[in-house]
Amino acid sequence: MTTTSMQTTVNTINNSASKVAIASLIGTAVEFYDFYIYGLAAALVLGSLFFPKGDPSLAVMASFLTFGIAFVARPIGAALFGHFGDKVGRKTTLIASLLIMGISTTLIGLLPTYQQAGIIAPILLCILRFCQGLGLGGEWGGAALLATENAPKGKRALFAMFPQIGPPIGFIAASLIFILLSKMLTAEQMMSWGWRIPFILSIVLVGVGMYVRMSIIESHAFRNMVAKQTQAKVPLASTVRQHYKQLILGSLAAMSCFTLFFLTTVFSLQYATTQHPWQTAPLFNKIDYLSMLMGAIVFMAIASPISAWLSDRIGRRPIFLIGGVATMAIGYYFGDLINSTDITTAAIFLSSALFIMGILWTPLAAFLPEIFPTNVRYTGAAISFSFGGILGGSLTPYAAASMVRDFGTMGTTYIGWFLMLSCGLSMLAVVLLPETHKQELEH
Fold this sequence. Notes:
Structural class: mainly alpha
Helix content: over 70%
Shape: globular
Largest sheet: none
Distance between the termini: 24 Å
Number of helices: 21
Mean pLDDT: 86
CATH architecture: Up-down Bundle
């Protein structure tokens, strides 16, 4: 095929808007369902199933450490899948990441417990959790590129909203299945075999995601790069060597939304439903709190189109800074809010925090790809997002549980300060990055 005919093909064949939206949304919904299933299970059941019995707080902290392992794996997955995504194509890489995530999640549901297999059980759990992180490390960057590189002019954030709505859908599905199982099964049945069901169901959802993603084609930006033969030989090396500033600042920009999210969901669920030494009873029972979280995550989804629409019109940075100021307010009152026994106060706290999360979260899918050129866009966006997750989410539930264990209720105030520090660093990084909402992606 001549260069002219290749260019004609590049310019005339494109994905439909609806196909792009569905493919990017379903894939991230499935992958984040898998990811959140583990987070919820870590807060509710995994500590006693996979770690030696003794101090319950130490078992919870150990399960939160395995939660963090996936965040360590994510940049490795981002570099691995980013390499092939920038060299071979977005579509193939997205399918591979979905398969790895789904198979790993399903196998977790088939693992023996510590009582059944001893130390082998937590070792296998850690290995599969690492594989989950590898898959998710490659998923988000590809889904964000699928949306932004196929978006009409001036609507990149609006299209980038679809992969960002996938996570709240995944969280709602994960929470709903835990609530249903808790209502249908006894506590003994749940601990014996019921906890396995959400993990094993993942294989069905992966099949749906695979079916949708097989129908898409490569983006115009990627096909144009291939036609011009401008691919990077080693995308990771080119990204680190030539775009290290964007990598560092992009990671810091993404950090605070992860801190806010995992404090509001994973940590608060464990904290509010556990009886601590200074209490006569937990603040809430598990089903009530999960129900509140499931309702609150809807506000994250509601914030997404608002944030996307505004960031396409006034820019990415103003939206991040508005969300940052609101996050600071949540951090300042965090101790009082999370210790409230009033169900209305708790619902408002969770809904407000996750609405703010939606404001911060949605522009990331457009902003991070926009700060990198096409030939390293998958690698750069995926690694920035993954390192943001490490900085803001990997050890956050563990650190928060440690503060509570060491300082009691005062520890929840320190957790709020931790959130404010994370937010301040993210706001600084956003200020140091350029505004990108009007630039073209073909560069």
